[in-house]
C-alpha cells in the first residue's frame, strides 16, 4: 500500500465537496422546473487544471471534461494514460489545430464556420467513429466573440449534417456578460428556439439533435430553466482559476 498523501487527500476532499455542491445545484434547478434530474449532463471544464485534478474528478465519477486549448488538453490526455474520460473541445478553433481535435477529442462544441467543419470531417480517423459536433452560436451578436451568427446557423448545420464523419448534436453558446444570471435567460431561450428550428428543418436528424450546451458556474440554474442539457462548469468544481 502506498502511504496516503495528506495534501492529495485534502485536494480530493475539496473536489468531492465541490462536486456534491454542483450536483445539488443541478438537481435543485431540475426540480424547480419539473425536469428529470438526469436530464442535465455535467461537463467539467478543466482548463488551467493539472492532470492530477482531472484524474481525481474522473475517479469521483465525472465522465466528461472540457478544454479550451488544444496543446494543454493533449498534454493532460497523455498524462492520464489508459483510462480516458470523454473530451470536449470548447475553445475557439484555429484551422491549424483541427487535425489534433479530430484525432484526440470526442466532441467539438465550438464549430462556427464551414471551413472548420470541412477540415474536422476530412481529418477524423475512420476508426474513431463520427465526431460529435455542436455549433457555437454568438447569440448576442457581440462584435469580438467567436460563434456563428444566429441567422447563419441553419446553413452551417446543413453543411455539418451532410458529412458522414461528423454528427451534429446541437448548439452551444456563451451569452453576453450580464449583471445577474437571470438576465441571460432570454439569450438561453433564443438558443433553445434555434435548436427547435433545426429539428424542424432536419426532421430526419431530430433524435440526434439532443444537446443544448449552455450555463456555467454562475448561471447554470438560469440555463437549466431554459432547457440546457449540458452545463459547462469550471470554477464551481475546481475552485478559482490560478493565473
Ligand atoms: C471557462 C469556460 C467555462 C467554465 O466557466 P466557469 O465560470 O469557470 O464555470 C465554460 N464554458 C467555456 C466556453 C469556457 O471557456
In short:
The protein is an alpha/beta fold and 243 residues long.
What does this structure look like?
By secondary structure, the protein is α/β, with parallel strands linked by helices. The protein has one domain: TIM Barrel, CATH 3.20.20.10. 41% of the residues lie in helices and 16% in strands. Strand 1, helix 2 and strand 2 form a beta-alpha-beta unit. Helix 2 packs across helix 3. It starts with 5 loop residues before the first helix and ends in a 5-residue tail after the last helix. The mean pLDDT is 95. Pyridoxal-5'-phosphate binds next to strand 8 and helix 9.
Fill in the keyword field for this structure:
243 residues; alpha/beta; TIM Barrel; eight-stranded parallel beta sheet; 9 helices; 8 strands; 41% helix; globular; binds pyridoxal-5'-phosphate
Low-confidence stretches: none
- Principal-axes geometry comes out as globular
| N→C terminal distance | 35 Å
Within the largest sheet, what's the order of strands? 7-6-5-4-3-2-1-8
At the fold tier of CATH, the topology name is TIM Barrel
The succession of helices and strands, N to C, reads HEHEHEHEHEHEHEHEH
Total count of strands: 8
What's the name of the CATH homologous superfamily? Alanine racemase
Biggest beta sheet attributes: 8 strands, parallel
Radius of gyration: 18 Å
Query: What is the count of helical runs?
Result: 9
User: Helical content, roughly?
Assistant: 40-55%
Mean pLDDT: 95
